[in-house]
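Q: ATP-binding protein, please. Structure only.
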Amino acid sequence: MADLQEASVTLPSDPASVSTARRYVTGVLAEWGLPGEAETADTVRLIVSELATNAVQHTFGQSPTFTVALRLERDEQLRIGVTDSHPRWPQRLPAAVQQDNGRGMVIIRWLTAEYGGRLSVIPTPEGGKTVWIALPWTPFQGPSGD
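A: Structure for ATP-binding protein:
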């Protein structure tokens, strides 16, 4: 396998794009050797769903599109990034608000930590941001301790 593999897709900031992003990531990861039925694939799909949902819901119409990027570095690390053009960074919502929503970043952080990964938010030159998740690829069996 190549030292670096990359793929990305730009989608409209519309709720229907969340499932499109999930399907896209599932297809790319299958090409890179991660079967769609693997537990890890389910986790990655959930992370992508939450990141894409945030890009659609929390940019308040100020980001007409969002981009999902994947990077597989030397069979060691999978990076998943979702970029939008809104300058507001993800925030943890107050507990009262979290009754119906607002748990996305908590879920993402927990899943990322369970898999031995890390989360970072990086500003884009255009004034938006990319939320990156880095997960170990090898071995990519399940949460640490499995």
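A: Brief note, in case it's useful. The chain has one domain: 4-136.
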